[in-house]
Amino acid sequence: DADVTQTPRNRITKTGKRIMLECSQTKGHDRMYWYRQDPGLGLRLIYYSFDVKDINKGEISDGYSVSRQAQAKFSLSLESAIPNQTALYFCATSVGDTDTQYFGPGTRLTVL
Amino acid sequence: DQQVKQNSPSLSVQEGRISILNCDYTNSMFDYFLWYKKYPAEGPTFLISISSIKDKNEDGRFTVFLNKSAKHLSLHIVPSQPGDSAVYFCAASADGGTSYGKLTFGQGTILTVHP
Fold first, then answer.
1. Mutant choice from A98, A101, A108 vs B, greatest count of B C-beta within 10 A
2. Chain A interface, best mutation among B1, B7, B107, B109, by max A CB count within 10 A
């Protein structure tokens, strides 16, 4: 079984719809992250959480919100999706003071 | 402001030869550097890392070199194999400041190894 799972893997939605992407991990890591990947821009950090009660904005948090429901679960919401939020979304985890992050398989989101 | 830059969008190499992927950074607070490999339809996977107290780290066919004065790091793959064809991202982190606990990624380089 994968250590970091993301659901759904693919999603097509319409402008203005609310959508939630979910991430679960069995690695027992305390830190979780959400990134988006766009061609030519690499991975950019949306939100991150160092523990259940800690939520921080990344470099591109506008239009997104997150919820850390438990140590193992971190969800990303788009309250009102817009076409320029079409991208690959990745969840990642890490432990304590180590810098190495472990990524899920990604969610391909298309906003029409 | 792109703090980590991979200026070559793509690289093509013959099987058995050396692949050299480059990365430059601007933030002098960065003190830990990582390389990730990404295959299509998968998430990035950790490949190799280096601390700023070192200038070289080796793991099998993969070696990362760090030149702090030039704010430059490179990943060498020797010998290159077709299975190495993927997108390679460099990333950096800092032990303090606004980059603490976060990774800043470059744009990625697509490596193609031809048989």
1. A101
2. B107
Burial of B82 (0-12, 13-18, 19+ CB in 10 A): exposed
Q: Which two tokens stand for residue A20?
A: 């939630």
Residue B87 Cα, gap to closest chain A Cα (Å) = 10
Q: Could you give the C-alpha distances from B55 to A63, A106, B35, B66, B93, in angstroms and in order?
A: 40, 33, 15, 5, 16
Contact yes or no for A24/A92 (Cβ under 8 A): no
Per-residue pLDDT for chain A (112 aa), expressed as one digit of tens each?
Answer: 569 999 999 999 999 999 999 999 999 999 999 999 998 889 999 999 999 999 999 999 999 999 999 999 999 999 999 999 999 999 999 987 778 899 999 999 999 9
